[in-house]
Design brief:
Mean pLDDT: 96
Shape: globular
Radius of gyration: 18 Å
Bound molecules: uracil
Strand content: 5-15%
Low-confidence stretches: none
Largest sheet: 5 strands, mixed
Number of helices: 8
Number of strands: 7
Helix content: 25-40%
Strand order of the largest sheet: 1-3-2-4-5
Distance between the termini: 47 Å
Length: 258
């Protein structure tokens, strides 16, 4: 799957940032996963680390899995192999057969005859991706619990920088996540850690962001790349912004500064 992946013929450069390359997955590919997470598309932190769901969305997702007692037995794939570019880029391609065909091969590999107990989809496009697979002959045989939850950065996307709207969107997302946790909990019969389910409150606390485990990332990546935000797209024009990712070492990770 990593040798033979679709390129610009399938993912048009007008709608996808194909120039940054495909980002395939994060987590276990050795059959030990109990939970599969389907995300949407990689953003800037993901194209730097070459693993999906690493930035804020990933750290929130990691916190969600931790509430289910899942700390290592998971694997994540996105609906799209490349970062979506521009408004509605993802929506325009949610039905593409070639995109779905390749993605379905990943879902076959992760879900057919494996020990996965539950699938979690993050948002509408991920939900569509999973349902498309579930309609295939292999998907129809699948015996896994399935839950769609609100995408972890939906509050940022929907609030347009308005703080009140952001707070309301976070509270709505966490209520949705609490319902998702209640439904998933009985399906995840083999958690890594047996812990009581502690629901979210109305706000995202720092404990709700779990750092990305070291084992999930290419060896030697600095510790600060596994938590917080450190990459941004910047550029004076749309074309320069698309061509540039600025990586900044966070203040408390600068050993040269007292
Ligand atoms: N990063 C990903 O890889 N997927 C998402 O859905 C969001 C951010």
């Amino acid at each position: 799957l990593c040798e033979d992946y679709p390129g610009e013929e399938t993912y048009p450069a007008g709608d996808f940032r194909v120039e940054w390359g495909p980002v395939f997955h994060r987590g276990r590919l050795d059959g030990s996963a109990r939970v599969v997470v389907v995300g949407q598309d990689p953003a800037q932190h993901e194209v730097v680390t070459r693993r999906i769901l690493v930035g804020a969305a990933g750290q929130r997702t990691q916190g969600f899995l931790a509430k289910l007692g899942i700390e290592r037995s998971y694997v994540m794939v996105n609906a799209f192999l490349y970062s979506v570019y521009g408004q509605g880029g993802g929506e325009r391609h949610d039905d593409d057969e070639a995109i779905a065909g390749y993605r379905n091969r990943w879902l076959d590999a992760l879900l057919v005859g494996t020990q996965v107990e539950a699938v979690v989809a993050l948002g509408r496009l991920a939900d569509k991706a999973f349902r498309t697979w579930r309609d295939t002959p292999a998907g129809q045989q699948a015996q896994v619990a399935y839950q769609r939850i609100t995408h972890p950065t939906a509050p940022e996307s929907s609030s347009g920088g308005d703080l009140d709207r952001y707070d309301q969107a976070v509270a709505a997302m966490l209520e949705n996540w609490n319902q998702g946790l209640e439904r998933l909990r009985p399906a995840v019969r083999h958690p890594d850690v047996d812990r009581d389910l502690v629901p979210y409150g109305e706000r995202l606390e720092s404990a709700d962001y779990a750092p990305i485990p070291e084992r999930d990332l290419p060896a030697g990546l600095p510790v600060w790349m596994r938590s917080r935000a450190w990459a941004d797209r910047k550029g004076a024009s749309a074309t320069l912004k698309r061509a540039t990712i600025v990586v900044t070492v966070p203040r408390d990770a600068r050993p040269w500064e007292p």
